[in-house]
């Protein structure tokens, strides 16, 4: 069986305050909070998922907000930049919107594409690129309508301590295709219409340090549980030691660290975020897996409340 991931399933990062995180990704970027739950390995910490209306694979960015956590340092062994795809013709809207919220931006050109580059409140690096591929968003919030809304991931920029090894993993293990080189990057493509373009910095990047403002891992898509089991065997045959399958409620996951230091996950597309909430009620309630329900009162007591809200533009 020949395996090829369709592309990015989700990207997970560390941030500080939950309210500031929600203000940025929902209030400014206009994404939908599709799930409010906890880090299953550290239940005193939220796990927040933002994406399109359904939380479709290829649109989901997730966060562990930890207000007392250390500040991280972006570097090798990490996703250096998270790329979002926006509709063609919408770049001016986003430049004006970010300026209105006093978020500094820069214009970047990479492999014949133009990007609007900026950072979130915790220092995570984000960029927007106009792309034809991918359906328009059906989620409108805080003045961001479908004609301008983020469609999902354009892809990601990977920083590796050993780019030759990472390149080998992207092609031989994950089945991606090398499609371009230039400007100090190597570009790889997969088959999905979102989350399908990966740019690998072609020179080694000094090791980063995990913490607020850095990406913890990038997850690749498996179409179902059967394919994920095949992925586990496939990854192992390439010399890696993947974890056993982990039940994450909304997908099942295996993890392995490639030789450039980046933590890779392979996550199943199903069952999705309507697994325990109605589609029109996603993200409204703290959802806990069954094994944590007996501890709900204590868990809620230890979590700082936050809300999804529109952010007022500062005058002057």
Automatic annotation (TrEMBL):
Ranges for domain VOC come to 7-131, 152-269
**PANTHER family the UniProt entry points to:** RING-CLEAVING DIOXYGENASE MHQE-RELATED
**Pfam families membership:** Glyoxalase
Q: Does the keyword Transport apply?
A: no
Protein's UniProt keywords contain Cytoplasm: no
Q: What GO molecular function annotations does the UniProt record carry, in alphabetical order? A: dioxygenase activity
What are the alphabetically sorted keywords of the record? Dioxygenase, Oxidoreductase
Name listed for the protein in its UniProt record: Ring-cleaving dioxygenase
Record the organism: Paenibacillus borealis
């Amino acid at each position: 069986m020949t395996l090829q991931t369709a592309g990015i399933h989700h990207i997970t990062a560390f941030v500080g305050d939950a309210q500031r995180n929600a203000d940025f990704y929902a209030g400014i970027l206009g994404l939908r909070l599709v799930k409010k739950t906890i880090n299953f390995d550290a239940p005193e910490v939220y796990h927040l998922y933002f994406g399109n209306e359904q939380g479709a694979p290829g649109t989901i960015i997730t966060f562990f907000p930890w207000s007392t956590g250390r500040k991280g340092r972006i570097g090798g062994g990490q996703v250096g930049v998270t790329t979002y795809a926006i509709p063609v013709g919408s770049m001016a809207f986003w430049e004006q919107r970010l300026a209105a919220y006093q978020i500094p931006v820069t214009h970047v050109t990479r492999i014949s594409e133009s990007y609007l580059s900026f950072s979130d409140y915790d220092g995570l690096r984000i960029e927007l690129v106009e792309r034809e591929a991918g359906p328009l968003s059906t989620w409108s919030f805080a003045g961001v309508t479908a004609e301008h809304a983020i469609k999902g991931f354009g892809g990601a920029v990977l920083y590796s301590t050993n780019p030759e090894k990472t390149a080998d993993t992207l092609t031989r293990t994950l089945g991606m295709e090398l499609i371009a080189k230039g400007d100090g990057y190597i570009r790889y493509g997969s088959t999905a219409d979102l989350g399908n373009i990966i740019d690998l910095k072609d020179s080694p990047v000094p090791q980063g340090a995990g913490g607020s403002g850095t990406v913890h891992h990038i997850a690749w898509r498996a179409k179902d549980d059967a394919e994920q089991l095949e992925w586990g065997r496939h990854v192992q045959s390439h010399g890696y030691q993947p974890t056993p399958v982990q039940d994450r409620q909304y997908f099942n996951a295996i993890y392995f660290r490639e030789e450039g230091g980046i933590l890779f996950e392979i996550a199943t597309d199903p069952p999705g975020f309507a697994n325990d909430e109605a589609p029109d009620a996603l993200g409204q309630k703290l959802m806990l897996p069954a094994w944590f329900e007996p501890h709900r009162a204590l868990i809620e007591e230890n979590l700082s409340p936050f809300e999804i809200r529109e952010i007022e533009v500062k005058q002057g």
